[in-house]
Amino acid sequence: SKKQAEKAVHQKKEQSKTKCRKARRRHINLVAEFNHRQRKNIWLETHIWHAKRFHMVKKWGYCLGNSPTEKSYRACYRAMTKHCLLQDLSYYCCLELKGKENELLKQLARICSIDTGLTFQEACYLSGRYEGSLNLYRADRYPEDMLGPVTFIWKPRDASENRQLWIWVHPALKQDILRELKAIFQCSEPEEICITEPVTTSIQEEKQVEIVTSIGNKRKKEDKEGEKAVPVKKIIGDGTRDPLQSYSWIARTTGIAISDRSMEILRYRLIGPLSHSVLTETLKAASVQTV
User: Fold this and answer.
1) N or C: which end of the chain has fewer CB within 10 A?
2) For 46-57, what is each residue's pLDDT tens digit?
3) Where is the signal peptide (predicted)?
Protein backbone atom coordinates (compact mmCIF):
# COMPACT_ATOMS: atom_id res chain seq x y z
CA SER A 1 0.00 0.00 0.00
CA LYS A 2 2.96 2.30 0.74
CA LYS A 3 4.32 1.75 -2.76
CA GLN A 4 0.89 2.46 -4.29
CA ALA A 5 0.63 5.72 -2.31
CA GLU A 6 4.09 6.80 -3.46
CA LYS A 7 3.19 5.88 -7.03
CA ALA A 8 -0.04 7.94 -6.84
CA VAL A 9 1.88 10.96 -5.50
CA HIS A 10 4.48 10.57 -8.26
CA GLN A 11 1.76 10.37 -10.95
CA LYS A 12 0.08 13.45 -9.50
CA LYS A 13 3.33 15.43 -9.65
CA GLU A 14 4.02 14.28 -13.21
CA GLN A 15 0.51 15.29 -14.31
CA SER A 16 0.78 18.75 -12.74
CA LYS A 17 3.98 19.44 -14.65
CA THR A 18 2.31 18.82 -17.99
CA LYS A 19 0.17 21.95 -17.61
CA CYS A 20 1.25 25.54 -17.23
CA ARG A 21 0.66 27.30 -13.94
CA LYS A 22 -2.31 29.24 -15.32
CA ALA A 23 -4.02 26.04 -16.48
CA ARG A 24 -3.39 24.29 -13.15
CA ARG A 25 -4.92 27.18 -11.20
CA ARG A 26 -7.91 27.61 -13.49
CA HIS A 27 -11.32 26.75 -12.02
CA ILE A 28 -13.13 24.10 -14.03
CA ASN A 29 -16.56 25.43 -13.07
CA LEU A 30 -16.44 29.03 -11.88
CA VAL A 31 -20.20 29.27 -11.33
CA ALA A 32 -20.28 26.21 -9.06
CA GLU A 33 -17.45 27.57 -6.93
CA PHE A 34 -19.01 31.05 -6.97
CA ASN A 35 -22.29 29.66 -5.59
CA HIS A 36 -20.57 27.42 -3.06
CA ARG A 37 -18.51 30.21 -1.48
CA GLN A 38 -21.27 32.80 -1.04
CA ARG A 39 -23.69 30.91 1.17
CA LYS A 40 -23.49 33.36 4.08
CA ASN A 41 -22.65 36.62 2.32
CA ILE A 42 -23.58 37.44 -1.27
CA TRP A 43 -20.75 38.23 -3.66
CA LEU A 44 -20.86 40.84 -6.40
CA GLU A 45 -19.85 39.63 -9.84
CA THR A 46 -16.60 41.60 -9.46
CA HIS A 47 -15.87 39.92 -6.10
CA ILE A 48 -12.86 37.86 -7.19
CA TRP A 49 -11.19 40.93 -8.71
CA HIS A 50 -11.79 42.96 -5.53
CA ALA A 51 -10.79 40.13 -3.16
CA LYS A 52 -7.30 40.06 -4.67
CA ARG A 53 -6.80 43.81 -4.26
CA PHE A 54 -9.00 45.01 -1.37
CA HIS A 55 -9.65 44.38 2.29
CA MET A 56 -13.12 42.80 2.24
CA VAL A 57 -15.84 43.56 4.79
CA LYS A 58 -19.21 41.95 5.46
CA LYS A 59 -21.96 44.58 5.32
CA TRP A 60 -25.72 44.45 4.68
CA GLY A 61 -25.51 40.75 3.78
CA TYR A 62 -22.81 41.31 1.14
CA CYS A 63 -19.05 40.83 1.01
CA LEU A 64 -17.68 44.15 -0.27
CA GLY A 65 -14.30 45.67 -1.00
CA ASN A 66 -13.64 48.32 1.65
CA SER A 67 -10.11 49.67 1.18
CA PRO A 68 -7.25 48.77 -1.19
CA THR A 69 -4.42 46.57 0.05
CA GLU A 70 -1.90 48.72 -1.82
CA LYS A 71 -1.43 52.47 -1.72
CA SER A 72 -3.41 53.14 -4.90
CA TYR A 73 -5.05 56.38 -3.79
CA ARG A 74 -3.01 58.51 -6.19
CA ALA A 75 -3.84 56.17 -9.07
CA CYS A 76 -7.57 56.36 -8.24
CA TYR A 77 -7.44 60.14 -7.94
CA ARG A 78 -5.61 60.36 -11.27
CA ALA A 79 -8.24 58.14 -12.89
CA MET A 80 -11.08 60.28 -11.52
CA THR A 81 -9.56 63.59 -12.62
CA LYS A 82 -7.96 62.63 -15.94
CA HIS A 83 -9.23 59.25 -17.10
CA CYS A 84 -12.08 56.99 -15.86
CA LEU A 85 -12.73 55.16 -12.60
CA LEU A 86 -15.36 52.40 -12.36
CA GLN A 87 -17.17 51.41 -9.15
CA ASP A 88 -19.43 48.39 -8.70
CA LEU A 89 -22.67 49.50 -7.00
CA SER A 90 -24.57 46.27 -7.64
CA TYR A 91 -25.17 45.84 -3.90
CA TYR A 92 -27.80 48.59 -4.22
CA CYS A 93 -31.25 46.98 -4.47
CA CYS A 94 -33.49 47.47 -7.50
CA LEU A 95 -37.29 47.47 -7.10
CA GLU A 96 -39.27 47.30 -10.33
CA LEU A 97 -42.83 48.64 -10.68
CA LYS A 98 -45.06 47.81 -13.66
CA GLY A 99 -48.53 49.09 -14.45
CA LYS A 100 -50.58 51.96 -15.83
CA GLU A 101 -48.82 55.30 -15.57
CA ASN A 102 -51.67 57.18 -13.88
CA GLU A 103 -52.12 54.42 -11.28
CA LEU A 104 -48.41 54.40 -10.50
CA LEU A 105 -48.16 58.20 -10.19
CA LYS A 106 -51.32 58.43 -8.08
CA GLN A 107 -49.92 56.22 -5.31
CA LEU A 108 -46.28 57.29 -5.61
CA ALA A 109 -47.36 60.89 -4.93
CA ARG A 110 -48.33 59.75 -1.43
CA ILE A 111 -44.77 58.83 -0.43
CA CYS A 112 -42.96 61.94 -1.70
CA SER A 113 -43.53 65.71 -1.89
CA ILE A 114 -42.97 68.44 -4.47
CA ASP A 115 -41.71 70.62 -1.60
CA THR A 116 -38.46 68.62 -1.60
CA GLY A 117 -37.85 68.93 -5.36
CA LEU A 118 -38.73 67.16 -8.60
CA THR A 119 -40.74 63.96 -8.16
CA PHE A 120 -41.73 60.88 -10.18
CA GLN A 121 -44.22 62.86 -12.29
CA GLU A 122 -41.75 65.39 -13.71
CA ALA A 123 -41.86 65.34 -17.53
CA CYS A 124 -38.09 64.99 -17.97
CA TYR A 125 -38.09 61.90 -15.73
CA LEU A 126 -41.28 60.40 -17.22
CA SER A 127 -39.67 60.44 -20.66
CA GLY A 128 -36.97 58.08 -19.38
CA ARG A 129 -34.12 60.33 -20.50
CA TYR A 130 -32.91 61.24 -17.01
CA GLU A 131 -32.47 59.55 -13.67
CA GLY A 132 -34.15 61.25 -10.72
CA SER A 133 -33.43 61.27 -7.00
CA LEU A 134 -35.66 62.10 -4.03
CA ASN A 135 -36.50 61.26 -0.43
CA LEU A 136 -39.34 58.84 0.30
CA TYR A 137 -41.69 59.09 3.30
CA ARG A 138 -44.34 56.85 4.75
CA ALA A 139 -47.65 57.27 2.94
CA ASP A 140 -49.29 60.64 3.64
CA ARG A 141 -46.81 61.37 6.47
CA TYR A 142 -44.57 64.08 4.94
CA PRO A 143 -42.60 65.83 6.47
CA GLU A 144 -42.45 63.14 9.18
CA ASP A 145 -41.43 59.47 8.98
CA MET A 146 -38.82 59.69 6.25
CA LEU A 147 -37.89 56.31 4.78
CA GLY A 148 -34.71 57.45 3.02
CA PRO A 149 -33.20 58.62 -0.28
CA VAL A 150 -33.68 56.71 -3.55
CA THR A 151 -32.85 57.13 -7.22
CA PHE A 152 -35.23 56.12 -10.01
CA ILE A 153 -35.54 55.88 -13.77
CA TRP A 154 -38.57 55.27 -16.00
CA LYS A 155 -38.36 52.96 -18.99
CA PRO A 156 -39.14 55.06 -22.12
CA ARG A 157 -42.70 54.79 -23.44
CA ASP A 158 -43.60 52.20 -26.05
CA ALA A 159 -46.82 51.19 -27.81
CA SER A 160 -48.22 49.66 -24.60
CA GLU A 161 -50.11 51.76 -22.05
CA ASN A 162 -48.18 50.10 -19.22
CA ARG A 163 -45.04 51.74 -17.84
CA GLN A 164 -42.02 50.36 -16.08
CA LEU A 165 -40.17 52.10 -13.23
CA TRP A 166 -36.94 51.09 -11.51
CA ILE A 167 -36.26 52.39 -8.00
CA TRP A 168 -32.75 51.94 -6.58
CA VAL A 169 -32.44 51.81 -2.78
CA HIS A 170 -29.66 51.17 -0.31
CA PRO A 171 -29.83 47.61 1.11
CA ALA A 172 -30.26 48.98 4.66
CA LEU A 173 -33.50 50.72 3.53
CA LYS A 174 -34.77 48.08 1.15
CA GLN A 175 -37.14 46.17 3.45
CA ASP A 176 -38.88 49.29 4.80
CA ILE A 177 -39.34 50.85 1.36
CA LEU A 178 -40.51 47.56 -0.20
CA ARG A 179 -43.03 47.12 2.62
CA GLU A 180 -44.39 50.66 2.06
CA LEU A 181 -44.65 50.16 -1.73
CA LYS A 182 -46.57 46.89 -1.25
CA ALA A 183 -48.90 48.68 1.18
CA ILE A 184 -49.77 51.68 -1.03
CA PHE A 185 -50.33 49.51 -4.12
CA GLN A 186 -52.06 46.77 -2.08
CA CYS A 187 -49.74 44.11 -3.46
CA SER A 188 -50.15 41.29 -0.99
CA GLU A 189 -50.50 38.29 -3.28
CA PRO A 190 -47.35 36.75 -4.80
CA GLU A 191 -47.42 36.96 -8.58
CA GLU A 192 -46.18 33.38 -8.62
CA ILE A 193 -44.94 30.81 -6.14
CA CYS A 194 -41.28 31.54 -6.37
CA ILE A 195 -38.39 29.24 -6.09
CA THR A 196 -36.13 31.39 -8.22
CA GLU A 197 -35.12 29.26 -11.18
CA PRO A 198 -31.40 30.08 -11.18
CA VAL A 199 -31.03 28.83 -7.59
CA THR A 200 -29.29 25.48 -7.24
CA THR A 201 -29.78 23.15 -4.30
CA SER A 202 -26.95 22.58 -1.88
CA ILE A 203 -26.67 18.94 -3.03
CA GLN A 204 -26.17 20.03 -6.63
CA GLU A 205 -23.62 22.58 -5.49
CA GLU A 206 -21.70 19.97 -3.48
CA LYS A 207 -21.57 17.66 -6.51
CA GLN A 208 -20.35 20.45 -8.74
CA VAL A 209 -17.69 21.51 -6.22
CA GLU A 210 -16.53 17.91 -5.92
CA ILE A 211 -16.13 17.86 -9.69
CA VAL A 212 -14.22 21.14 -9.56
CA THR A 213 -11.78 19.90 -6.93
CA SER A 214 -11.30 16.44 -8.45
CA ILE A 215 -8.07 15.72 -10.32
CA GLY A 216 -8.26 14.95 -14.01
CA ASN A 217 -8.57 16.51 -17.41
CA LYS A 218 -12.15 15.51 -18.22
CA ARG A 219 -13.94 18.49 -19.68
CA LYS A 220 -17.29 16.71 -20.15
CA LYS A 221 -18.75 16.04 -16.71
CA GLU A 222 -21.25 13.24 -16.19
CA ASP A 223 -23.59 12.45 -13.34
CA LYS A 224 -24.28 9.06 -11.70
CA GLU A 225 -26.61 7.95 -14.49
CA GLY A 226 -23.92 8.62 -17.09
CA GLU A 227 -25.81 11.52 -18.66
CA LYS A 228 -24.26 14.94 -19.23
CA ALA A 229 -24.51 17.05 -16.09
CA VAL A 230 -26.71 20.14 -16.25
CA PRO A 231 -24.58 23.28 -15.90
CA VAL A 232 -25.00 25.12 -12.62
CA LYS A 233 -26.80 28.46 -12.87
CA LYS A 234 -25.80 31.58 -10.98
CA ILE A 235 -27.67 32.15 -7.74
CA ILE A 236 -29.99 35.13 -7.99
CA GLY A 237 -30.72 36.80 -4.71
CA ASP A 238 -29.18 39.43 -2.52
CA GLY A 239 -28.06 40.08 1.01
CA THR A 240 -31.50 41.35 2.04
CA ARG A 241 -33.58 38.43 0.77
CA ASP A 242 -33.67 34.66 1.07
CA PRO A 243 -33.48 33.24 -2.50
CA LEU A 244 -36.44 30.95 -1.72
CA GLN A 245 -38.77 33.81 -0.75
CA SER A 246 -41.22 35.45 -3.13
CA TYR A 247 -39.67 38.18 -5.23
CA SER A 248 -42.73 39.41 -7.14
CA TRP A 249 -46.16 40.66 -6.02
CA ILE A 250 -49.24 41.91 -7.86
CA ALA A 251 -52.33 43.96 -6.92
CA ARG A 252 -55.55 42.26 -7.98
CA THR A 253 -57.53 45.49 -8.31
CA THR A 254 -55.11 47.64 -10.35
CA GLY A 255 -52.76 45.03 -11.82
CA ILE A 256 -49.72 46.90 -10.50
CA ALA A 257 -46.78 44.49 -10.15
CA ILE A 258 -43.77 44.95 -7.87
CA SER A 259 -40.65 42.85 -8.45
CA ASP A 260 -37.42 42.66 -6.50
CA ARG A 261 -34.67 42.79 -9.14
CA SER A 262 -31.74 43.04 -6.74
CA MET A 263 -28.59 41.43 -8.18
CA GLU A 264 -30.46 40.76 -11.43
CA ILE A 265 -29.85 44.26 -12.78
CA LEU A 266 -26.24 45.25 -12.14
CA ARG A 267 -25.18 48.85 -11.58
CA TYR A 268 -21.83 50.50 -12.22
CA ARG A 269 -20.68 54.08 -11.68
CA LEU A 270 -18.14 55.66 -14.02
CA ILE A 271 -16.31 58.75 -12.75
CA GLY A 272 -13.95 60.90 -14.80
CA PRO A 273 -13.70 62.97 -18.00
CA LEU A 274 -13.23 59.89 -20.22
CA SER A 275 -16.32 58.08 -18.88
CA HIS A 276 -18.40 58.75 -21.99
CA SER A 277 -15.51 57.75 -24.24
CA VAL A 278 -15.20 54.42 -22.42
CA LEU A 279 -18.95 53.79 -22.73
CA THR A 280 -19.09 54.63 -26.44
CA GLU A 281 -16.12 52.36 -27.12
CA THR A 282 -17.55 49.53 -24.99
CA LEU A 283 -21.26 49.63 -25.93
CA LYS A 284 -22.31 49.29 -29.55
CA ALA A 285 -25.85 50.31 -30.54
CA ALA A 286 -27.88 47.52 -32.15
CA SER A 287 -29.34 48.16 -35.55
CA VAL A 288 -33.13 48.51 -35.38
CA GLN A 289 -34.86 46.45 -38.06
CA THR A 290 -38.27 47.65 -39.14
CA VAL A 291 -40.65 45.08 -40.57
Assistant:
1) C
2) 888 888 888 999
3) none
Structural Rg of the chain based on CA atoms: 24
Residues of the chain with CATH 3.30.70.1400: 93-189+247-265
Q: Give 3's pLDDT tier (boundaries 50, 70, 90).
A: low
Task: Report the distance separating Cα 181 and Cα 229, nearest Å.
Answer: 41
Range 93-189+247-265 has CATH code 3.30.70.1400: yes
**Distance, CA of 143 to chain centre:** 32
Model pLDDT for residues 133-150, shown as the tens digit of each residue: 999 999 999 989 999 999
For residues 263 and 72, the answer to whether their CB atoms sit within 8 Å is no
Q: Is the dihedral of CA 214, 219, 225, 230 positive or negative?
A: positive
Q: Rounded to an integer, what distance in angstroms lies between the CA atom of residue 231 and that of residue 212? A: 12
